[in-house]
Specification:
Length: about 220
Amino acid sequence: MVGILQECFFPSSAGHEGGIPLPPHCSCLKSLIFVVAMPKSAVRQAMLAQRRKLSVPLVQALSRAAQEQMLSLPIFQQARSIALYVATHNEVDTNLLCVQAMATGKNVLYPAVVGRTLEFRQHEINGSLVPGGFGIGEPPVGSLVWQPNELDLIVVPGVAFDRHGRRIGYGKGYYDRVLHTLEGSGRLWGLCYDFQLIDEILHLPHDALMDGVVTEHRVICPCD
């Protein structure tokens, strides 16, 4: 079981005092207000609607800030193998994480949809990604496949997260089925915008708990 989570605040590198200011529709406080008593489907719909409103420049700025937070973490710096995701639908981008990981000799992997599950395929330097399940880029068939328990760090996308490491995805269950057995291993880290971090999410037995969550403003991490 993942321990109690504490908020660990890190200074933003964006050059604004107090971090990058969010527009009104991205207010974390607003998210807390409308999410508390809502079912997952309603939370998902509301969060996706907020995310669609983000402009390209804002996605780029917030993504860079969130990735710089992730780059500063010991779990990233010490990992030798890292699974990322290809951002879609205005998700936090991971290209900077990929570039920095490869520059320091880490193995970088991306998930590929295979039937009703995911497999993690290695991405080679100068390698290309091909459209896979749902049109999302993934390493081609024939790439080296790693088992989830062989990876040091798995960066997980999501529609919403809470302060206990709970997550709402797109509702297909791919990450939950693959990562459920790795709960509490310290390897599962969500990456999202700060407005996607809400007070509490209804947790079901099959849902995979994150060991930490990173946004452009803060890092939520387990404490002893």
